[in-house]
């Protein structure tokens, strides 16, 4: 049974039909890359999967259950968690409070403590700034906080939207090292990134989107070899940096 | 073929353009227009009030000042409690909860019925403390109920509409509630039953003694008035003012604890900052919004009962002025800021109590003074006056 099954999904972003007849599968324990340039529909797809956008038609199933009409907060509680694009932290809360929000709904304080320790071990810079207001963090630190906050939920499926956008190469690698290790902890990942090379370096499979449709899908090696596709549709972001 | 020059813009067209632009601007941000309207009403009231009166201010004594300061603190804590409701709703929904004054009024009314029942059944005489608690509880309960009804049937249906729509709807709801109360319970003001709540005999051994001086029962917290000489000042003290201030403080501390220190309160702040992301964390935003209205109801209901305890009366229209003043206090403190609402409320209460007599204005002008402050804030400091002091990051 696949963890996530998306079938013939159509979704609007405002008046734009941004996802068209899109089907996609994520198996338990995979890292799946969602590739495509700016405006390809990656964010719209992720928002529709996690319930922030209601699809015009099509279906989404998670863990074998149809969730197409389930409220977004319910999906989050079922372990379907999105780490959104951009610096969507709670700026007026401390880093600590942001992380606790990630574990919202979890009643077991020992478990929360445990997750906090393991997340801070992975992102030691956040530990140094734990009492600081999140709005005072640097851009890179805020991106880390978004990842860390999502990990506090220990999701079954983590949807990552552009985790490396606008980051210095050093930070990018730090974040990607964390992503690479997630399946070993039982966290499956659907990763949207414009940086094809990076995304395919951690993913086993991938989908390439353009104008809301799947242009190509296959294993990471296949997609990586397919340099024509990479160059034609993804531009120079496809090259290693 | 279609190479005619475009028709010149006629004055009529320009007028229409200007009107539609002005309308769009108004829908986007109605506050300046409302400010100017209030300003005009204000000038009208000023003229009407100033003309026939020729009274000169009597000399202003320190006793007067102290008495007004205490009264201002009590009144100000009422405004602060109301301001918190406006500010919390605004921080989550970015709307002005204009019908909040009616929640306050409903609380005062429910308190009136509870207290009257207690008086009739004899409970008030035998156990005044329990009666006061029951009065507060019914005021708070009914206020929560009305606030939740408003959330569900007034604000939720227009949640995705521009702010001006919710403002208009809220004003409408406010009038509907006032009229409904007037039809159901009569439009005339009703007297709150007198409560003699005697307390602290060990602390104030000289108060409340019977004629033999044997049975001293302490100080009357609700209805007492005491002439006290203190450091050479002759003051008339009303314990109810201190009680209102203390009660407001307790309610606000509980609110602060809930919002700042509990996981549910953290969820409320998360929804206020970024509703979509809060939902991604598993927060049910609708439930959070309902909680915000309920919290506002708790504070407004308690404020309504406390206000009626020292104002001694309640009518269907008793919520309007405190409501507008609570809103003014919230704006003064920067709407959306919790410490700003508390500071704004206390400041407004004190200013309103002291300034008219210092300036030798007629006491009737104190409401005009408050509206003047509201207009000035809206026009010149829409972000509030304490932004630097409370240092709250917004936007
Ligand atoms: N807030 C928005 N309102 C209207 N259209 C949008 C909005 N955000 C994105 N779009 C449009 O939706 C389409 C898909 O965008 P998006 O899903 O954000 O792509 P990606 O995440 O791959 O960059 C694009 O055509 C974009 O212009
Ligand atoms: Mg995107």
Q: Which chains share the greatest interface?
A: A-B, 26 and 19 residues
Strand proportion of chain A: 25-35%
Largest sheet of chain B: 2 strands, antiparallel
**Structural class from helices and strands of chain A?**
alpha/beta
- Count of alpha and pi helical runs of chain A: 10
Characterize the largest beta sheet of chain A: strand count, sense, and whether it forms a barrel. Answer: 6 strands, mixed
Looking at CATH, the homologous superfamily of chain A is P-loop containing nucleotide triphosphate hydrolases
Morphology call of chain A: globular
CATH level-1 class of chain B? Mainly Alpha
Give the amount of beta strand of chain B, in percent.
under 5%
Enumerate the strands of the largest sheet of chain B in spatial order, edge to edge or round the barrel: 1-6
Would you write up a description of this structure?
The complex is a heterodimer of chains A (241) and B (395). Chain A is built from 10 helices and 10 strands. Chain A is of the alpha/beta class and 241 residues long. Chain A has one domain (4-92, 155-234): 3-Layer(aba) Sandwich (Rossmann fold), CATH 3.40.50. A 6-stranded mixed β-sheet of chain A has the order 6-7-8-3-9-10, with helices on both faces. In chain A, strands 2-1-4-5 form a 4-stranded antiparallel β-sheet, with helices on one face. In chain A, helix 3 packs parallel to helix 6 (139-151). Chain A is globular, with a radius of gyration of 17 Å. Chain A starts with a strand and ends in a 7-residue tail after the last helix. Mean pLDDT of chain A is 90; it is low at 236-241. The N and C termini of chain B lie far apart (52 Å). Chain B has 15 helices and 6 strands. Chain B has helices spanning 11-28, 31-50, 62-93, 100-121, 123-126, 128-155, 163-185, 239-261, 263-273, 275-280, 285-311, 320-332, 338-358, 366-380, 387-391, and strands at residues 190-191, 198-199, 219-220, 226-230, 233-237, 313-314. In chain B, a hairpin with a 2-residue loop joins strand 4 (226-230) and strand 5. In chain B, helix 12 packs parallel to helix 14. With 395 residues, chain B is mainly α. In chain B, strands 1-6 form a two-stranded antiparallel sheet. In chain B, strands 2-3 form a two-stranded antiparallel ribbon. A two-stranded antiparallel sheet of chain B has the order 4-5. At the A-B interface, helix 2 and helix 3 of A face helix 9 and helix 10 of B. Magnesium ion binds at residues 42-43, 85, 161-162 of chain A.
